[in-house]
Design goal:
It is a single chain. This protein is of the alpha+beta class and 187 residues long. It has two domains: 107 residues, 2-Layer Sandwich (Gyrase A, domain 2); 69 residues, Alpha-Beta Plaits. 23% of the residues lie in helices and 33% in strands. The chain contains three helices and eleven strands. The strands form two sheets. Strands 1-2-8-11-10-9 form a six-stranded antiparallel β-sheet, covered by helices on one side.
Length: 187
């Protein structure tokens, strides 16, 4: 008889420290895809605020706090890092996608330099501010990048890409760390 056990997408892969960079998995017990019912956008906004104490993110944004996030995925789509309350079902389509995504938090100095090796978008601190989110390529994977803080970013990909994401991000961190080490020695 086989015994099955649940594993997170990055189990055995993270956390990692590479020079000044920290790569950690951000785990949510539940993840829900939210799409408002026709004509119910305003009701969804009010219910999400009342029940989960969150704003539905506008285009290109992420809302929430460390233990609860809501990420813009596209027109009329948001990803809630929690089990959606039953009250939301009256104004939105709710889909449990808890096993479908991988969330990786990347922190350290000059993360835009690290992500520039992976993403074809401008993530400079003056262009991509705290609370911004963007669907983009991350390496060769489709994903979403969000800025959580001064030196803290969230990368979201499908669960099946977790190992590839960790490999690509760790390689980019190693490259930037090596470049900075050479610069420091040369100064």
């Amino acid at each position: 008889m086989f015994k099955l056990s649940a594993k997170s997408p990055c189990e055995g892969l993270l956390p990692l420290s590479i020079g000044p960079y920290e790569i950690r998995e951000m785990e949510f017990a539940n993840v829900t895809l939210i799409a408002p019912l026709a004509g119910q956008e305003e009701a969804l906004d009010v219910t999400l605020s009342d029940v989960h104490r969150l704003k539905r993110p506008q285009r290109g944004r992420i809302t929430g706090r460390a233990d609860l996030r809501c990420l813009y995925l596209g027109p009329h789509l948001a990803l809630l890092g929690a089990k959606a309350s039953d009250e939301l079902a009256s104004c939105a389509h709710l889909t449990d996608v808890s096993d479908g995504y991988c969330f990786v938090q990347l922190s350290g100095p000059d993360i835009p330099a690290v992500l520039a090796m992976l993403c074809p978008i401008d993530l400079a601190k003056n262009a991509f501010k705290r609370g911004h989110a963007q669907s983009t390529l991350i390496g060769h994977m489709q994903g979403t990048v969000a800025r959580l803080g001064e030196d803290e970013y969230l990368l979201v990909v499908f669960r099946s890409m977790a190992k590839t994401l960790v490999h690509e991000v760790s390689r980019a961190c190693s490259s930037v760390n090596a470049i900075e080490s050479v610069r420091e020695r040369g100064s």
